[in-house]
Amino acid sequence: MPSLARLIPILAATFALATPALADKIDGDWCAPGSARSLHIDGPAITTPGGHAVEGDYSRHFFSYTAPAGEPGAGTRVNMRLLNEMSVEIHFPDVTETWHRCQLNS
To answer: What angle do CA 75, 57, 94 make, to 5 degrees?
Structure first.
């Protein structure tokens, strides 16, 4: 039992110092730098920068969808790749941009 008695304080310190991990998935709210454009991904569902709700091809770190009518590049594929927990690279038909997770105003 002496080894267990020494282990408990070590485990307690480890848990006390642990910080929550950010989700390592593409789901969530993404905002374009320097503009009001944003999008929301929830599994295979996306709300596009133009406000359209459509379905796309989803995996944990990638997402693609066909730009709907009324949006730039209508009918072409938009592809996204998660760079890290806070950044996503978006390949629109004419430009590639890096967007970031939207920050909550609190």
So the answer is: 40
How far apart, in whole angstroms, are the C-alpha atoms of residue 23 and residue 75?
31
User: What is the helix (H) or strand (E) element at residue 66, kind and residue range?
Assistant: strand 62-66
**Separation of alpha carbons 98 and 61, rounded Å:** 14
**pTM, 2 dp:** 0.75
CATH number of 22-101: 2.40.128
Contact 80, 60 (CB under 8 A): no
Tokens of 85: 């927990």
| Helix, strand or coil, per DSSP, at residue 5 | helix
The pLDDT value given to residue 25: 95
* CA-closest candidate to residue 98, choices 22, 56, 21, 37: 37
Domain boundaries of the chain, sorted by first residue: 22-101
